[in-house]
Amino acid sequence: MPKTIIVLGAYGGTGRVLCRRLLQYTQAKVVLGGRSEEKLRQLQTALKHDFDSKRIRSVVADAADPASLERALRGVDMIIVASNTPQYVKDVATAALRAGVDYFDYHFKPDVLARLKQLQQKIESSGRLFITQGGFHPGLPAAFVRYAAPRFTTYRKALVAMAMSAELPSPESAYDLVDELQDPHVTVYKNGQWKNASFSDTESFDLGRFGKQQCFPLEMPEMRLLPQMFGLTDTGVYVAGFNWFIDYFVFPFAFILGKIKKGFGRHLIGRLMVFGFNRIPARARGVAFALEADGEYHKKLRHVRILADHEDAYDFTVLPVVACVKQYLKGALPQSGLFMMAHVVKPEQLIKDLKLMGIKFIIRET
Q1: How far apart are CA 53 and CA 281, in angstroms?
Q2: CATH 3.40.50.720 spans which residues of the chain?
Q3: Tell me, what's the pLDDT at 244?
Q4: 239 within 8 A of 162, measured Cβ to Cβ
Q5: What is the location of CATH 3.30.360.10 in the chain?
Q6: Cys-Cys crosslink for 72: which of 61, 67, 105, 316, Cβ 3.0 to 4.6 Å?
C-alpha cells in the first residue's frame, strides 16, 4: 500500500518542485501543507492537471501552530519540511513523534542537527526514522565522499566544491544564508586536524559550466565524521562566489551589520540578495557540484573526480531528497533513529537514481 507523505511548505520555492517530483518519481500519496489555504488550492489544482488526483490532497498546517500540525499529520507516514522555518524544528519534530510519523528536513542551518539531537532518545524509543540535513548542500557532500571510498585502499583527501546560480522568490528565502554570514564558524580538516577556516583557505576547482573557480570553505556538520570513517588527512566543503554585486557588496555589508548585532538588517540584506541574484548577470545558471578525491589503490596513486551538473538549482535541491525518499519507500533505510541524509542514504543507488532523474554526471578514475 502506498505511503502518504506531507510536504510542509508545499507552495514555497523548493516545496512546489518537491511535490511535483515526488508524484513523478514515486508512488507515494502527497499531502500539500502550508499556512495559506488559497495557495494550497492553487498548487493542488496545478498538480491535479498532471497527476492522479487521488494521490493529492491539501491541509492547512503551520510549523508554529502545534494544533494545526496535529491535525495535518493524521493518516500520514512521513513529514518532509520544505518550509524555511528552522526555528521551529523541535516543534515540528515533537509533533511528528506524538503522531508516530517519520521525519525528513532539508534545512540549511548547521545547528538544526544539534536541536534534533536533544530529542534523540525519544526518537529512538519511539521507533521512528528522522532524517535531517537533506538536499544537496547539505546532503550530497559526505554522500559523494562515501561513494568514492570503495575506489581506494588508502583514502587520503576528499574535497567537495559547488557553484550555483538561481533566482530567489523572496527576501525570506535568503534568511538562512544571511544568518550564516552574520555568525560565521567554518572549519576545514587539513593535515589531520580540524582548524578554523579563513578567507585564505581557498581552493581552486574546475566546476563545469562555471569554469575554474576559487572557492571558499563552507561549514557542513556531515563532514565531521569522515576523517575517522575513512582515515582522511584532508576534507572540506567549498563554495564559489555568485556575482560581483553579491560577492563584493552584499556579503561584506551583511558581515559588517552582523558585527553590530546578529540579525541586524536581515530583511534589507535579503532584499539586496533578491536583487543581486535576480537582476545581476551570473557566470552561468544552474548548479555544478564536484568531488576531487585522492589516495591509493593497492599502492598505486589514484584520483577520483565526480562532477554533477544540472540547469535548475531548485530541482538539484529536491532531487536528492526524492532519491533518499525512494530508498525509504523501498525499506532500504534503517527503521528508526536520527541520521543526516548524507550518512544514511546508500550512495551508489543515490547517484544511480539522480542520473535517472536528469542530473548529468561525469565520473573519472585516473
Answers
A1: 40
A2: 4-135+314-346
A3: 84
A4: yes
A5: 141-312
A6: 61
Question: What does the pLDDT look like over 282-299, one tens digit per residue?
Answer: 778 899 999 999 999 999
Find the helix packing angle between 313-329 and 347-356, rounded to 10°: 130
> What pTM, to 2 d.p., does this model score?
0.93
Spatial separation of the C-alpha atoms in residues 106 and 82, rounded to whole Å: 7
**pLDDT tens, position by position, 320-348:** 999 999 999 999 999 999 999 999 999 99
The domain covering 4-135+314-346 belongs, at the CATH homologous superfamily level, to NAD(P)-binding Rossmann-like Domain (3.40.50.720)
N-to-C CA span, the chain = 45
Residue count (the chain): 366
Q: Report, at the CATH architecture level, how domain 141-312 is classified.
A: 2-Layer Sandwich (3.30)
Check: CB of residue 215 under 8 Å from CB of residue 181.
no
For cell 488526483, name the residue.
Answer: 53
Q: Is 132 exposed, middle or buried (0-12, 13-18, 19+ CB in 10 A)?
A: buried
Q: What is the pLDDT of residue 242?
A: 84
Residue 198 has pLDDT above 80, yes or no: no
pLDDT tens-digit series, residues 213-252: 999 998 999 999 999 999 999 999 999 988 889 888 888 8
Burial annotation 116-128 (CB, 10 A radius, 16+ → b, else e):
beebeeebeebeb
CA-based torsion, 97, 99, 102, 104: positive or negative: negative
**Residue 120 belongs to what H/E stretch?**
helix 120-126
d(CA 51, CA 21): 11
According to the model, what pLDDT value does residue 318 have?
Answer: 97
User: What gap in Å lies between CA 243 and CA 277, rounded to an integer?
Assistant: 8
Residue 52 near residue 22 (C-beta atoms within 8 A): no
d(CA 197, CA 200): 8
Number of helices (H) and strands (E) in the chain: give both, helices first. Answer: 15, 16
